[in-house]
Each structure stands twice: as structure tokens, then as C-alpha cells.
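Please annotate this fold before class:
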Amino acid sequence: MSEPSQYGVMESQPVTTVEHVYSGRVLLPMSMAAPQVPVLNGREWEIVLRKGTLLGKVFAARSETVPTATGSRVNKEVIGKMVDDLPSNLTDEQRGKVRELLIRYRTILSTGDHDVGQTPLVEHTIDTGDHWPIRQPLRRQPFQHQAYIDEETNRMLEYGYHRTSG
């Protein structure tokens, strides 16, 4: 039996009772009595939300540990290039602090064009309400672009970014 989640996720969405006001996506502790949710007001004037205004639904978040890589050669090269590309007016001490920060958070750095990362912690959904998703045929691409499209598609499959349908 799994233990109850300590956190909940609320997706960004319009506040249904007020036009042009949107709640932000947020990770909330389930034990919090008065949660703070970021809200965007798309109007030019101030809007006050009443206490008890429904901002969205909170879904239980699943906690998982993701293994982190130690300082690999690729990470060291990428961090070195990032530090080398910093503005020349930074002192050696400032560059050292940036290097330490990059090393500490190296697991979230992209080390190449196809290293965009993935997370099992959040699953993207599109709320269509009571409506079925609209299915559209693929758009035709110019013939001269087809080789590049095939190469990129194969590369994405190789890196596991998407899977074939069917």
C-alpha cells in the first residue's frame, strides 16, 4: 500500500468566476492550512478575489527519487564552456562562484541538443472538458525537407523523446 502524498500539484488554468484571471501552476504541501497560489491578472485594473474563490483542483503528487550523475566528462566540458562564455568583466572569485553553482545543479543542465531531460513527476494533460480531441491529418511537408524530418524523427526515437503510435 502506498503512503499518502505529502504534496499536491495544481495546474495553471483560468479562474472560472473572473474573466482574464489565471491561477499559476504550483506544487503545494498537503498539510498547508493557507496555501499561496500565484495568480495572473490579465486586466489593466486591480481585481480582488474573495476568500473561498476556487482557483483550481489539486492532484496528489507522486514523489520519486531520480538518480543523479556524478561529474562526468561531458558535464565538466559543458560547465567549463559556460564559465568561459561568461562576461570578461567578472572577477575570478565571481567565476568560481558561478562554477560551484553550475556543478551543484549539474543534473539539470543540458549537455547537448538532444539532452532536454524528462521527468516522471508530472504528466502533461490537455483538459478538453466534455469534448473529444480533434483529430487532424498530417500536414504535407516540402519534399526537399523530408530527409531532414526523417533524420530528426529517428534521432528523437533513438533518444526516447517520443514513441511510435499504433
